[in-house]
Amino acid sequence: MADVEPAARLREVKSFCRICTGLCGTIVTLDEQDRIVATRGDRDDPQTMGFICSKGMNAPDFHNSPDRLLRPLKRMEDGSFSEIPLAQALEEIGDKLAGILDRDGPDAVASFRGSGGFFYAVTLNLLTDWLAAIGTPKNYSTLSIDQSAKTVVLSRLGHWMAGKNRVQFSDVAFLIGANPFVSITQLDCRNPVKRLKEHKARGLKLIIMDPRRTETAQYADLFVQPLPGQDGPVVASVIRTILAEGWHDAAFCAEHVADLDLLRAVVEPFDPDSVGKRADIPPAQIREIAEIFARDGKRGIASSGTGPDMSPHSNVTEHLIECLNVICGRYTREGEEMTNAGFLFPTGSLPAQVMHFPRSWEMEPKNRINGFGLVWGEMATSAMADDILQPGEGQVKFLLNLGGNPANCVPDQRKMVKALRSLELLVSVEPFMTPTAQLSHYILPPRMFYERADLPMHIFEQILYPRPYTRYTPKLVDPPAGSDVCSEWDIFWHLARRLGKPLTLHGIPIDLENKPSDDAMLSIVADKALVPWDAIKAEPLGCFHDANTFALPLDPATASQFTTMPDDVREEVADLLADAPVMGAFKSNGETFSFLMTSRRQRHRFNSIGFKIPELHRAMPHNFGYMNPGDMADAGIRDGDWIEIASDNGAITVLAKEDGAVRRKVVSICHGFGGLPDEDEFMSDGVSTNQLISTDRDLQTINGTPRMSGVPVNVRRSNGPVPRALVG
């Protein structure tokens, strides 16, 4: 972080961070040249009350880093990069893209959006509108390798229109594979530690299930530590117990569940004794979960994070978790207040009933590689590398990478890197030289978050906030002198103009002759908001609007019922039941492994965002292989030894780290580290866990999510990574 100058020469302004879903209120300190020199949490902010993480505190280094890219770069024939003016870069990209479209058609064009591409309110939807204008369905992102199982549930089980119980008004919460103290999601992301303490003080009972005793688990009333990949069987057994004891909401189920008897029959084989054995937990804990959640708790929620959604059987596991909410009736009922029906995109009062979303994946278009359809408007990212590599009609030749790092974050890293190298045109919108940027033909550096006006992330506004809320922030600083950076939406505007494609944002046409201002684009985002645009801008700490939305009576003409066990879910439950692990002898594609690898988050990065920030890098320069001390002793591994972690797809070498919070037979390692394969240096970069993960097998049906956690691996002492000079 930059040194702070004497107070007399400084001024402070309020804004909010846009690195992750926390969207924390900040106080930004500027020097007399309006350069950011410090950030801290704003105690006056009504949402986050002074909370800020290490990433937000180091915003000055994001803006002022000597590693920040400040002018567009073009890759030359020898692989080096040369600076070129932004206008020239956009013109050249537009000409090359037009040639690809003329020759190969719109299916040769694709985009990938990563974590850095979700937190600018204008481009959040403008990217998809731009793709639609071109006529390509090839919208890839991190969502389909994250938690898209939750979207699948909405179509197979059903969706309660008036919303679920909120943790702020609940007496029990059951978190599965989620760690909000670090990920700043789930529960209440508005200052998660303080908010959870408040909820606990008023009596909230917290159940945590995770293979690692996480930072959040210290507040659990019941902590359950199963083997990775066994969340589904445990939840099925909890459902079995609740139904057997009559602790479910029988009246709610009679009116709103179509097939409760079928659910009861399907979970019957998941008895606590057999599930306890396969999950390696005391069977009595299954009954404890049922007692706390259903017998004693009357309002509450069962929810998950990336843990189960990245593990084997993720779609059916997520389905069972939501079935737990269904049988206990954990939803807003007729006449009850819908505490947040949206602010920027308000729904108004909705009926207290079930609706089913269409099974989008059964419709056209389908992915040419594996036949998967769209989930939440996106194609399965597990097919992206093959969509680039495999010749034929529709082969991707151009990829626009918006704030993503697919060379690092997409499973099957070596295949993904090979695909990116083969592209005719790869354009990355990126402020730092990431591994993906290194492979790009053009790198377009964007404005950083305090250099642009903005609104909070609106696609999750009803989840993030308990009351309707939004907040405008003006830009606080200009980009550094001499820079030639762009607003992200500039790229879509210029390319649409060059291609002669009409461009809309939220259905509103964009003028392609006279370039709009940033505020004009933001006002389109707020076009349907609860209050006028000028009123939003006038509130420095954000707008709250209690819209008095209450759940309406059920409409018999449109009401549906939850379907807990459609045929495809029953098949997946049968597969889940049959896939019982043997402790220490985990099977994968005909091989036997001794451990299961799980992914974990850490405080100093948001996926790979932050790797170039000195203080964050010093805090964690590489990703350790965390192991239980007992396992380390059995294998003759000591703290700080080099270890090789090998799966059926590849191997990585890391430093071992003793961690008593990790359960036996598990090795836990952070994702988001590493450079390009065989070019990274572990001590300075870490290594990508995606070398261990295949996109050719072990994929979920429907959304194609790879097995990214609960991966069978062997662990052994090693002499360390091969020096880069000797590779190849």
Give a description of the structure.
The structure is a single chain. The protein is of the alpha/beta class. It has 4 domains: 1-64, Phosphorylase Kinase, domain 1 (2-Layer Sandwich), CATH 3.30.200.210; 70-136 and 397-549, Rossmann fold; 149-331, Dimethylsulfoxide Reductase, domain 2 (3-Layer(aba) Sandwich), CATH 3.40.228.10; 582-726, Beta Barrel (Barwin-like endoglucanases). It contains 26 helices and 28 strands. The strands form 8 sheets. Strands 5-4-16-15-14-6-7 form a 7-stranded mixed sheet. Helix 8 (231-245) packs antiparallel against helix 11 (272-279), helix 8 packs parallel to helix 14 and helix 11 crosses helix 12.
Structural class: alpha/beta
Question: How far apart are the first and last residues' alpha carbons, in Å?
Answer: 39 Å
What average pLDDT do the residues reach? Answer: 94
Please state roughly what percent of the residues sit in beta strands, choosing from under 5%, 5-15%, 15-25%, 25-35%, 35-45% or over 45%: 15-25%
Percent in helix: 25-40%
Number of domains: 4
Q: Which strand order does the major sheet show?
A: 5-4-16-15-14-6-7
Name the shape in a single word. globular
- Strand tally is 28
Q: Count the helices. How many?
A: 26
Q: Radius of gyration over alpha carbons?
A: 25 Å
**What's the CATH topology label of the largest domain?**
Rossmann fold
Q: What top-tier CATH class of the largest domain fits best?
A: Alpha Beta
Pick out the low-confidence regions: none
Q: Architecture of the largest domain, according to CATH?
A: 3-Layer(aba) Sandwich
Major beta sheet summary:
7 strands, mixed
